[in-house]
Amino acid sequence: YGCFSKLKESIQKSEGGLLNFASGYEKFGLHVNADNSITCLEWAPLAQALFLKGDFNNWNVTSHPFKKLEFGKWEITIPANPDGSCPVRHLSKIKIGVLTAGNVMIDRLSPWAAYVVQPPKSEGLAYQQLVWNPPQEEVYIPKSPRPKRPASLRVYECHVGIATDQYRVGTYKEFATNILPRIAKLGYNAVQVMAVMEHAYYASFGYQVTSFFAASSRYGTPEELKEMVDAAHALGLYVLLDVVHSHASKNTLDGLNEFDGSDSCYFHGGARGTHSLWDSRLFNYS
After folding, report:
1. pLDDT score of 245 more than 90
2. Other Cβ atoms closer than 10 A to 35
3. What is the pTM of this model?
4. One GO CC term of this entry (predicted)?
5. Rounded distance, CA 93 to CA 132, Å?
6. Residue 29 parent element (H or E)
7. How far apart are the C-alpha atoms of 50 and 67, rounded to whole Å?
């Protein structure tokens, strides 16, 4: 309890409270500002340099360097185009170039990526990060209020991908139309959605997560997930997202592993940072 109290006090002092500390996704990663400029903030404590590259700069490796900040943070701001439009288009590909302590340039996806997709087979197996910034008319606006948390939960645990009677991966839209009404009719008042975070290895059932802030693109887009959640709310169903916090995929090209070139960026270094049963990496929570 003494360790907990000390850490909580430290977070209160340096981060402005637990809620602010837990809202890092609002600051980190790539964000489109109100004036259509771009800001990207990353944490890579052992990197020598970071660069943003993608379709927007014809994949120039060094034309858009990040500025080094305190505490291992790196930031870049790209102004809006002269006509006021965003310099990085919706659904365009981006990557972060990381110059490691050993002077090796590696490609990484942002740990805070909001949308990553499986590439065409001709482009390999590593998932690709796409900028998710749809035009306003394509943003899903919820129609139903969130139900009050039930006094007594009756939870239906579900997996969108396997919820069809066919040998294929199901979609958010199909689940909303075909499955949610049946769950509500059976008397459940909550659904627990498994495998909602992006995972490159489908057979892991969603537990070898590669992108913790990206809704799995196998089932549809982020807006279609919002639509599915809204459909659940319309039926009076409380929605729980099954979030995996203890470990992550070992993937480096499309995961968190070795993001800054070291084995200890987000995880414990050495044997302590490996989960032998899951063949995954274990987070260092400090």
Report:
1. no
2. 9
3. 0.93
4. cytoplasm
5. 10
6. strand 29-32
7. 8
